[in-house]
Amino acid sequence: MIMENDKSKMADLHLFKAIQRTPFSPLKIDNVEVIAGSSQQEDNIDYNPELIGVADDQHSISSGDTDHEQEKVDYVEKLNEMKRQREDPMTHCEGDTDIDDLYTPEDADVDLGVADIDDMSCELSDPPSEDGGLSTLECETDEENKPPPGKRRRGKGIQVQRIYFDESNMMDTSQLCKGMCFTDAGQFRKALKSYHIVKGRDYKYTRNKADRIKVKCSQDKVKCDFFIRASQVGSEKTFMVREMIAPHTCPSHRNCTRVDSTWLSERYEDDFWSDPNWKVEAFMARCLRETGTYISKSKAYRARRKATEKVLGNKEKQYKRIRDYLQTLIDTNPGTTAVVTTINRDVLGLAPRFSGLFICFSAQKEGFINGCRPFISIDGCFVKLTNGAQVLAASARDENNNMFPIAFAVGLMNAIPIVFPDSEHRYCKMHLLQNMGNKGWRGEKYKGFVDAAIYATTVWDYDKAMEDLKKLNLKAWEWLIAIGKEHFSRHAFSPKAKSDLVVNNLSEVFNKYILDARDKPIVTMVEHIRRKVMVRLSLKRQGGDAAQWEITPIVAGKLEMEKNHARYCWCYQSNLTTWEVHCLDRSFAVDISARTCACHKWQLTGIPCKHDVCALYKAGHTPEDYVADYFRKDAYMRTYTAVIYPVPDEHRWTKTDSPYIDPPKFDKHVGRPKKSRRRGPDEGPRVQGPARKTTSTCSNCRRDGHTCSNIKVSLTLSILRPIFI
């Protein structure tokens, strides 16, 4: 049995008051025994607030102490209730006068006795006021509120809210003032530079350290009191303006030396994001209008180069993680082929050097195999950098005779004989004529005979054109015969591809399609091409879903032209499927079941020619039913069913264990980099604007492509007008 007397009850009361005054000290109540003894022993008992608790339930309590035990239980419940209120932010308010101490001893002892608690309670009790208390207007001063000796304040000091510099509004000079905070010293220096550029003044550093900066006016001829001092805030990187004497009292000037290419690139970076090819003249005018400072053209070029490097990326650094980028392409688009080739260096320890790149997305593979005709157009165009690389593109024709990109590569290797050893090779007519012109065989007669041989769909037409060329120039005829008719004449083409193309327009269309990307760094260029192809496939897919036609519009238009020409033909039936069709002074045999014509056009293109249409109408058939399956809607949808999926940015690329790749050698040439294509000797001058749609004829030499006002030869007498006096 535990016996308690009045002194133990008094200790509990003092303990409860002490706990009330200490709300931030949690009370832990464990099983603690209070030992009863004589009155002398009870006087010497020390009570520890952290060890006082409820007696163990296994001990018995006398019936005479039931009231006291109930009072103790009530105390404990009240303590628990206070603890719950302290933990609940909705009911507890820090700083309540009934539970918060004004001061706390510096060397406070946790184990306080009863006597110590009594002394503390007496010491903290308010003395009676003579005037009955202070009125609301008679506030105590700070001197009167100082803590007694040996004590400290518990409450935190008043913190002034900081105002940080808004870097997005850099040109606002009112931001640079006393008390303004900056994230670091670099931001403060940028703000200081922008302030003086707007004001048209200059400054110099009297102290320029990592933790302290002092600046004054750089003008020596006129006394100027401008001064600013800034330093770090404690151990933080934050910079604060401690002292500032402004504004400048010296005169302003137009040519501020603080306007450099780095500041210009950072100031107008957002504008270069919108237009990386921003004209230098417009850039200089914009800078003069906003800052009042004239910049030279060379400085404007340097600023644009730095800004575009931030926007588009560094052309040399992008080669390092190109393997990570290609692996990301494969992960996001399963089935994609992405290969990079390198050249090992002779020096040990050097990273391999970039050689070539090949990318073919799975959507392009599936579209070509499932829907397109087996016809590929391959050509290259130079990258507008200084390493001599080319973008080699492979394109096909979809069911509507539009361009369908299959794959592209970046490199210098011509791998067509290796990749396509057994395929039929066709040569572009334009390049064929250009090569003839380089050998000296130019003129309308040469062009006419070569065109007739190229467009001939029968052997008779081809032989006639070649005989005419032989009569004109024997060497030109021998040179063209040596090439081989299977490479340039339609009558010798295989009908498997269902295409009669003799020009490489598909590749030229793709080269024009990626023109904006060819002057960008390697990864930026590939990403630009990928996004354009991804959007193109999506738009074609949506257009095909909404289309109501069964035959593609381009092919349907060609068939309508053949129908109009068939009106002037007449035919004679040989049997159920064979017909003899006459057109002017020539006749051709048509087999409807075999879908062949003696003119070779139906086999070559897959579209019925005028002879076939005439026979089909006579036999009671519909020409649209005899169009090749390559030109129908279901084949069109198979071409654009697959999807190119998005690719994450550089921060989320798949990391590979392969070493970095060094960029190829970049040759820096003197002068401004040239991006325009070199025109051939037989090509006219480049014409800009709306005049490109018309043909100009020179009144001096009677040739097209120029006028007599932009040539340097002397004018003939025939165009000189006499002057009458």
TrEMBL record:
<keyword id="KW-0863">Zinc-finger</keyword>
<dbReference type="InterPro" id="IPR004332">
    <property type="entry name" value="Transposase_MuDR"/>
</dbReference>
<keyword id="KW-0479">Metal-binding</keyword>
<feature type="region of interest" description="Disordered">
    <location>
        <begin position="656"/>
        <end position="698"/>
    </location>
</feature>
<dbReference type="InterPro" id="IPR007527">
    <property type="entry name" value="Znf_SWIM"/>
</dbReference>
<dbReference type="GO" id="GO:0008270">
    <property type="term" value="F:zinc ion binding"/>
</dbReference>
<keyword id="KW-0862">Zinc</keyword>
<dbReference type="Pfam" id="PF04434">
    <property type="entry name" value="SWIM"/>
</dbReference>
<dbReference type="InterPro" id="IPR006564">
    <property type="entry name" value="Znf_PMZ"/>
</dbReference>
<feature type="domain" description="SWIM-type">
    <location>
        <begin position="588"/>
        <end position="620"/>
    </location>
</feature>
<feature type="region of interest" description="Disordered">
    <location>
        <begin position="122"/>
        <end position="156"/>
    </location>
</feature>
<dbReference type="Pfam" id="PF03108">
    <property type="entry name" value="DBD_Tnp_Mut"/>
</dbReference>
<protein>
    <submittedName>
        <fullName>Mutator-like transposase</fullName>
    </submittedName>
</protein>
